[in-house]
Amino acid sequence: MGVLSTLAGVVALTSVLVPEVAAQSCSGVNGRFQPRMGSGYRYSVLATGLRQPRHLVVDSAGNLLVAEGGTQSVRRLVLQDQGNIVCVQSNTQVVSGTTNHGIALSADGQTLFTSNLASVTAYSYNANTGQVGQGRQIITGMSIQGTHPTRALATSKFSPDTLIVARGSANNIDAATTSQSSGRSMIKTFSISRVLQSPVDYTQGGEVLAWGLRNIVGMTEDPVYGGFWSVENQMDDLRLNGRDIHNDNPAERLSYHGQLNATNNRYKGLNYGYPSCVPAWDTASVGINGLLVGSLFKPDNVPNVAASECSNNRMTGRLHFHAHTAPLDIKFNKNATSAYIAFHGSWNRNPADGYRVMRVDFANGQPVHDVTSKTAQIPVMENSNIGACPFNCFRPVGLAFDDKGRLYVSSDQSGEIYVIYGA
Fold it and tell me: Is this prediction's pTM over 0.90?
């Protein structure tokens, strides 16, 4: 029943996609796939041949900076309009050997931050020339042997001295993360001016913005209302009372963390339940009376807590998504009426799901849909043949808007960057 309900949801989502059409291409750029686009959207292929492009950022001069996981480098793509699409004028490596995923620019655009398994590094950066200064490690002590090597980064327009760094769990069920002292499965904020003067250990420094979050790979700030948001990859191989319920549970999660510059942010420091409490997606397969989409429950083989702890003393998400679809980034459009989410796609469910970019509509700084909604996602870009995934399809990872409202999307599996118009 859970599989059928999820498949029905996918069919409903994809039914509003327009037929496949050949995308207009830049000279010498030939994309491997032809995505299906949601109504009102079109796309072009910006670049191919990259080495596992992960997160992206657009600098103050309109250039695209790309974190390449495959080479642990940063590439700078100088862009140029060509008719009704944008193309790459030049492509150069500006940083090497310091990143596997995360990248961010300070609010003034003059400091570049990258992250890898062990640390965060800062560089002076000139958007006009592409000149990058000598790198300095500013946050250390994050290396662990385990499942989640990404260290998502974000900065804030509303709190410009703040750097936000996420660190995931050491494995699927990381029992030590029931304590903040583990320094894992959490989001922390750091004063940029302080860490530039004196580097800190992640576990010892900074302030906890949120914890009990299994693996945060994407974070962003609402550009109008200033709210801070994250998308989370939840637990695999879930069992409850000896039953295998992993195919459609737990839900992936969009969480709200308040305004970073608020004097009294009531969301700061909240615990979201992991590893003892997980959010439901397919409530029927869970089989707990009264459980709603997003409600937290305790599965098998996790650190013990009372059931009331999950329902009363842990924070749940603001919206929830299909199990195992792996949201890896989130970005708002300029007027904050929509948030776009990159779903990298599943490995832990059958049939596969995800591998798409979706939109969630917002009003007054919050999603328009209720927390229990299963229909909040609106199709933007999907694979035309999801059956070919994960090895022969595009897998969205990073998102970045430019000042013209164009949305850049990286695909690490295919080494490509797409541009979505109409976002």
Answer: yes
